[in-house]
TrEMBL record:
This is Metalloendopeptidase. The active site is at 152. Residues 66-250 form the Peptidase M12A domain. Keywords: Hydrolase, Metal-binding, Metalloprotease, Protease, Zinc. Its EC number is 3.4.24.-. Its cofactor is Zn(2+). PROSITE patterns: ASTACIN (PS51864).
Amino acid sequence: MWLLLSICVSTVGCLPINQTQDAITPTPGVTIFFRPPQGASAETLEELKGDMVVQEGDILIPEDRNAVETLWPDAVVPYVISGELAHREPDIDAAFKMISDVTCIRFKKHSAELSYLKIQDGNGCASFVGCRGGAQPLYFTQSCTVGNLCHEAVHALGLHHEHTRMDRDQHITVQWQSIIPERKNNFKLLRGNTLNLPYDLNSITHYGQFFFTADGSPTMLSKRDGGQMGQRTHLSQLDIQRLNTLYHCDERMKSQ
């Protein structure tokens, strides 16, 4: 069954690296409230049109890993922008440039490719993780910033939230009593490929300390003095290294 799934994914243009994938059970429900980091907009959907399920606030149909090994072939991501977002094309270009300026990953307007991102309006920001095959939605509402979209694009490239790593508790303390009860699964640790890179509080994929707070108190505290988390302004150095490692950018550069 898993082999058939991998073959099916291959035929629609993605690049599966590992044919055994253990999915976790998604949590139903999409109505979410939280305090975003200062200067950033929420990435979670308050509501999704249709029957899609949101896990961890902004991830659609997740995998049980930190880096999904279903990649975009040749490190090229085709995309289309829905008509209602035409006025935000400069923001979309800026978000993609944050990634392409520091990696070998390229974004191009969709032509005849079988797999591509379809950037469309919604009631928040959300993405699948990794290349799923076919027309893959990426939701980008008016309230989302360039940094929010970059965060979602990093999910689409294959990275999960940094705070779900198995070594998370060595670096931050989760304040479980302050988390909205039905959102505690968003902080669940996931087994997965960390690409042998250190934990990164500064990652663009890391939650902020007030995400999903029930009472206005922090939901996560750094164990490092002055450790900030939840920024949505740039890729950290480790974000850059992760993406370059995941897409074998060194090898691609040598072959050019």
